[in-house]
Amino acid sequence: MTTKHFLDLADVPAADLRAMIEAAKKWKAARVGLDKGAPDPEPLLAGKMLALVFEQVSTRTRVSFDIGMRQMGGGTMYLTGSELQLGRGEAVSDTARVLSRYVDAITIRTLSHDYLLDLAANATVPVINSLTKRSHPCQLMADVMTFEEVKGPIEGATVTWCGDANNNVATSWVHAAGKFNFKMRMAFANGYGPSNETVAWAGENGVELDLTADPAQAVAGADAVVTDTWVSLGDEEDVFARHRRLSPYQVTDDLMAKADDKAIFMHCLPAHRGEEMTGSVIDGEQSVVWDEAENRLHAQKAVLAWCFDKLPGA
Ligand code: CP
Ligand code: NVA
Question: What is the pTM of this model?
Answer without folding.
Answer: 0.98
